[in-house]
């Protein structure tokens, strides 16, 4: 396991190239976010995605979340939010909102779920990394399933010492609720998990209509 800060990784071209190669070949990285530490794998690497499920002891039926650097990248995925959805995203992205959209057609071969949760984290270093990465990362919280998320890189190193390829050290994080998960495939949208953002906060965007 290599342990390094995100700025140091981005500034060191050989290490950056090794990082990209490792993830493309199925390696898993732990990285800080604006809520909790996450586990990340290259979205095109079935080996890396499977490794996350095995590391966490996660049920296969629970999909991972796609991280984006910017909202504009939705267009690259073939996702075009309507006016109300766009207002919601402009209000809460970057931030602790996971928006669930129908899985884009080109992703259905490698992502066996009808919907895809997407988030733009409010963590400048992570977004810089996401912008530089030649592809997309699928993520989930850094913990064993059923256990609290790990907020300290030392604890992560101890828990996943034999499984992680990279630990991107952002220092200990302040305990925080997870992101709020909002299902935009339903009408009106449904909150699947209430985290940092409450229903009242989301309602101000008009996303729930008159419901």
From TrEMBL:
It is found in: Cytoplasm. Residues 13-197 form the YrdC-like domain. Its main location: cytoplasm. One of its GO terms (biological process) is tRNA processing. PROSITE patterns: YRDC. Keywords: ATP-binding, Cytoplasm, Nucleotide-binding, Nucleotidyltransferase, Transferase, tRNA processing. GO terms for cellular component: cytoplasm. It comes from the Bacteria. Its EC number is 2.7.7.87. The keyword Aminoacyl-tRNA synthetase does not apply. One of its GO terms (molecular function) is double-stranded RNA binding. InterPro entries: DHBP_synth_RibB-like_a/b_dom, Sua5-like_dom, TC-AMP_synthase_SUA5. It catalyses: L-threonine + hydrogencarbonate + ATP = L-threonylcarbamoyladenylate + diphosphate + H2O. Belongs to the SUA5 family. NCBIfam families: L-threonylcarbamoyladenylate synthase. This is L-threonylcarbamoyladenylate synthase. It comes from Candidatus Ozemobacter sibiricus. The lineage of its organism: Bacteria, Candidatus Ozemobacteria, Candidatus Ozemobacterales, Candidatus Ozemobacteraceae, Candidatus Ozemobacter.
């Amino acid at each position: 396991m290599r342990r390094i800060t995100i700025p140091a990784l981005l500034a060191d071209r050989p290490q950056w190239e090794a990082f990209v190669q490792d993830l493309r070949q199925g390696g898993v990285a732990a990285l800080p976010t604006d809520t909790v530490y996450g586990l990340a794998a290259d979205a095109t690497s079935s080996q890396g995605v499977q490794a996350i499920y095995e590391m966490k002891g996660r049920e296969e039926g629970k999909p991972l979340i796609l991280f984006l650097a910017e909202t504009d990248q939705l267009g690259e995925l073939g996702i075009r939010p309507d006016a109300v959805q766009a207002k919601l995203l402009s209000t809460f992205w970057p931030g602790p909102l996971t928006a669930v959209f129908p899985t884009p057609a080109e992703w259905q071969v490698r992502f066996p779920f009808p919907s895809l949760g997407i988030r733009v984290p409010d963590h400048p270093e992570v977004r810089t990394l996401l912008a530089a990465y030649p592809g997309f990362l699928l993520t989930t919280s850094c913990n064993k399933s059923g256990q609290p998320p790990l907020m300290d890189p030392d604890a992560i190193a101890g828990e996943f010492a034999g499984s992680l390829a990279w630990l991107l050290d952002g220092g200990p994080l302040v305990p925080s609720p997870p992101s709020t998960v909002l299902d935009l495939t339903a009408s009106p949208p449904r909150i699947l998990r209430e985290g940092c953002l409450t229903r009242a906060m989301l309602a101000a965007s008009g996303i729930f209509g008159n419901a």
